[in-house]
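Q: I'm writing up a methods section and want to include an example of the input and output format. Could you take the sequence below and give the corresponding predicted structure tokens, formatted cleanly so I can copy it straight into the document?
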Amino acid sequence: MKKHNTIFEQIIQKKTATQLLYQDNLVSAFYDIHPQAPIHVLIVPNIPIPTVNDITPYHEKTIGRLFTVAAKIAVKLKINESGYRLIVNCNNDAGQEIYHLHMHLLGGKTLGPLISNSTITNLM
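A: Here is the clean output for your methods example:
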């Protein structure tokens, strides 16, 4: 189910008290309110793109900016050397809850594998 006028759009438009870590003409970044790691930042396009499936060639510059901003934030938060994880979920089965494309930047501790070795073996 794709829903426009999400909480992310309100944050981007500064209609909430959420503190932005970064904002330019293409993307915005802020802390997740339900962190899954000591550092958990969401990086979102400023235009509503519901899912990865909705990305078009028009969005390429914006999608690239998500990654360059992730790297800048990692430096700012001093996790660029120790490491961090970037995650993008697409649709319900992947756990996407807000239908405004967003990238999770997680770090600040050693992060375990996303899936276990036994799961990988079973997939082969």
